[in-house]
Structure formats: structure tokens, C-alpha cells
Amino acid sequence: MKKDIHPNYRKVLFKDITTDENFIVASSVETSESITENGVEYPLVKVEISSSSHPFYSGKERAGGTTGRIEKFNQKYKKK
Q1: CA 51, 59, 38, 16 torsion: positive or negative?
Q2: Total number of domains constituting the chain
């Protein structure tokens, strides 16, 4: 293996700015901001969407509104 080519992993705090939730994960991302959480200072990365705010993972996914489509289909192909 070559020396000094592998990324440096450390604990990083990811902050979802939509839901104000924090996630501490090992990462190699570079950032200039830092934050103190529970008395420990972590590099800070702000994200707009995470598993706590994404509609699919949070369970707040909107249905496709199939009711109107079914009625429209039935009216279009209704036997006369």
C-alpha cells in the first residue's frame, strides 16, 4: 500500500437543517465548521435532506392521487 493516500476517517456531526436533528457518523468529509455536542467538539456538516426529513423515510410521502384517475378512466371507457 502507498503511504498517505488513504482518507482520514473521524467522527463528524451531520446536522439536518430542516428538522434540526444531529447524526454523528465516521466520515472523511472536509469542513471548516465545528460544533460542540455533549462536551465533545465535532466537525460540522449541514445537510438539507436526511432520513429524518426525506418524505420516503419519514412516512410523510404523499399518495399519487389515484382516485381522480380511476374515475376519469371509468368515464372515458364507460359502456354507452
Answers
A1: positive
A2: 1
